[in-house]
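Quick one:
INPUT:
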């Protein structure tokens, strides 16, 4: 058999794995996020409340569309900014022959050619999209399971304190039909923990900061500041408590860090070859040894053909 061409390697599993593994997982994640968001398949837990509880007696701030950071704006930014940043960084690095741009072209079944630039863009954006839906699922699941009320819950609930027999503020109401307000507003007011907007904003910022080649200090600070601002506005408008926002921050950041470090691994350096007679030094940062993280390897990286060491980065989809 003739030697494999320089810059090209073959794989018979990349297309089946993409079609029957990764697309199936992505479709299942999207469907689960849809059922959480737009159906009543998962009913919200109904928590009780204390009469005249000041923590839930803030004025109703109005529909979400009237917020200083409405959902349309948040979702547009978390979609457009990372996409443009990743595309710009990858295109710039590819045409300037930067580090990590020497990946090989993959040939599948002698009919499909996967350019390294195309593979990296699909890898980054595909994992990012998966993380967005995963963050949505975690946030919605937390809201459904806990049923924590928003700061303006009593303003939308409009309980009849006389009929409920509220003699003091320490009386706890567990009646499911205690609210007389708009049922849709009451249902929305029971979904406060964690803050989904805060989770999505921080996820988008952390993923972009850690995964892109354009992660300069100014860009990092701007993205993280915008994400924090979303949470601050949510609290200032009485749409979430601080605990809800902090939980959203943690959820989004944790998912982003896991995906970048263990799935994308765009900044994980390949180990240099072992030199005979010379002890191998452990990887370190600032003189401190690094412990390996338990990472998830994508099936797309289990490619046939000889392994090469010409790239500066470990290639993980």
């Amino acid at each position: 058999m003739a030697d494999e061409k320089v810059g090209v390697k073959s794989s018979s599993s990349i297309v089946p794995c993409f079609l029957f593994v990764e697309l199936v997982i992505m479709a299942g994640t999207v469907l689960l996020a849809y059922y959480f968001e737009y159906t009543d398949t998962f009913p919200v837990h109904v928590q009780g409340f204390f009469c005249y509880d000041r923590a839930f007696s803030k004025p109703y701030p109005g529909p979400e569309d009237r917020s200083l950071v409405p959902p349309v704006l948040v979702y547009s930014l978390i979609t457009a900014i990372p996409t443009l940043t990743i595309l710009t960084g990858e295109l710039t690095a590819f045409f300037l022959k930067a580090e990590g741009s020497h990946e090989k072209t993959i040939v599948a079944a002698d009919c499909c050619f996967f350019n390294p630039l195309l593979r990296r863009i699909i890898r980054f954006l595909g994992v990012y999209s998966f993380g967005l839906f995963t963050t949505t699922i975690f946030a919605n699941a937390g809201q459904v399971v806990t049923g924590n009320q928003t700061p303006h819950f009593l303003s939308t609930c409009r309980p009849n304190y006389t009929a409920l027999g509220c003699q003091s503020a320490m009386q706890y109401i567990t009646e499911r039909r205690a609210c007389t307000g708009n049922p849709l507003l009451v249902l929305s007011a029971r979904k406060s923990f964690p803050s989904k907007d805060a989770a999505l904003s921080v996820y988008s910022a952390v993923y972009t900061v850690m995964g892109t080649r354009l992660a300069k200090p100014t860009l990092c600070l701007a993205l993280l500041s915008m994400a924090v601002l979303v949470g601050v506005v949510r609290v200032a408008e009485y749409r979430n408590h601080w605990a809800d926002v902090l939980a959203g921050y943690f959820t989004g950041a944790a998912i982003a860090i896991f995906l970048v470090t263990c799935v994308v691994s765009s900044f994980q350096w390949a180990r240099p070859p072992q030199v005979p007679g010379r002890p191998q030094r452990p990887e370190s940062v600032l003189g401190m040894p690094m412990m390996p993280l338990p990472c998830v390897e994508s099936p797309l990286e289990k490619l046939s053909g000889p392994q090469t060491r010409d790239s500066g980065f470990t290639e993980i989809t």
